[in-house]
Amino acid sequence: MDWSKEYFDELYLKYFLETQKEELTIEQVDFLEQFLVGKVDLLDAGCGIGRHSLVFAEHGHEVLGVDSSPLYIERANSLRLSRNLETVDFVVSDIREIGYLEMFDGILSLWSSFGYFDDETNFDILKRFHNALRKEGVLIVDVENKDYLLKYFIYETFNKKDDVFILERRKFNPITSVVTTHRYFVGRNIEREYLHNIRVYTATELVNLFKMIGLKNIRLFGDYSGEKFHINSQRIIIIGSKH
Questions:
Q1: Phi/psi class of residue 86: alpha, beta or left (left: φ > 0; alpha: ψ in -120 to 50)?
Q2: Which pairing describes strands 235-242 and 62-67: parallel, antiparallel, or unpaired?
Q3: Which helix (H) or strand (E) holds 80?
Q4: Is 134 helix (H, G, I), strand (E, B) or coil?
Q5: Alpha-carbon distances, residue 150 vs 40, 44, 144, 171, 204 (angstroms)
Q6: Edge to edge, what strands does the sheet with 178-187 contain?
Q7: Residue 125, SS3 per DSSP
Q8: pLDDT at 1
Q9: What's the angle, vertex CA 82, arms to CA 107 and CA 142, rounded to 5?
Q10: 54, containing H or E segment
Q11: One digit per residue, pLDDT tens: the chain, 243 residues?
């Protein structure tokens, strides 16, 4: 069963996507731009409502944002029109099926948009990204750091947003390296349960995967300030170039 079809709905949009601060997104884009040469063609894979795509477009890049959620793509295109941007477009597309060939100078997979499937499928997605890059193009992937996550593993969280209570219970499978999260929304006229599975990676695993698909000049960072990656980094920002 594909959990992502149910998980990314209007509640996730309201309580997780639309609550992200614009200034944080701008800081992230400013950091990532240093790895791009001039104004480039970008693919934002798993773009959500397009928060990074929109800022990249405002900076003069040509951007295609793809996401499997029609709801999120509709919202992204609404934001594009409200900001009068002509250098960005958003389409509904499953990243497991993208078939672009040497069309982009950069491909982005941000905010833990990678690792939703089994190892074979995840690796196939990386190969598709590589095929979609032009020569000298860069792939940028941003995920949680498995070493940090396990060291400070949080089994349960309980939050209140507006009049809605959000409970999350997590478990880790050491054989598959998959974190499974059960999320419950409870509020007036709301009672929903969701399942989220994500394959978490160490930096070593990601570096090896990047090498296996043929990427070179691989760089690692621990956050968007440009901090050098270390075992206690909360995130892995990995960047590789196609040669």
A1: alpha
A2: unpaired
A3: helix 70-82
A4: strand
A5: 37, 28, 10, 10, 15
A6: 156-161, 164-173, 178-187, 190-199
A7: helix
A8: 61
A9: 25
A10: helix 51-58
A11: 689 989 999 999 999 999 999 999 999 999 999 999 999 999 999 999 999 999 999 999 999 999 999 999 999 999 999 999 999 999 999 999 999 999 999 999 999 999 999 999 999 999 999 999 999 999 999 999 999 999 999 999 999 998 999 999 999 999 999 999 999 999 988 999 999 999 999 999 999 999 999 999 999 999 999 999 999 999 999 999 999
Cβ–Cβ under 8 Å, residues 87 and 61: yes
Inter-helix orientation angle 203-212/119-132, to 10°: 50
Q: Tell me which residue of 196, 231, 15, 182 sits closest to 115, measured CA to CA.
A: 196
**Which pLDDT score, from 0 to 100, does residue 207 have?**
98
* Whole-angstrom distance, CA of residue 179 vs CA of residue 141: 18
Tell me the sheet residues that pair with 104.
133
Give CA–CA dist 85/162, Å, rounded.
32
Instruction: Give the tokens for residue 72.
Output: 């999120």
Q: Yes or no: say if 68 and 93 are a contact pair by the CB < 8 Å rule.
A: yes
3-state secondary structure of 19: coil
Rounded to whole angstroms, the Cα distance separating 25 from 228 reads 20
Question: What pTM was estimated for this model as a whole?
Answer: 0.97
Nearest of 55, 132, 64 to residue 92 by alpha carbon: 64
Q: Which amino acid is at 59?
A: H
What DSSP state is assigned to residue 63?
E
CA 157 to chain centre: 22
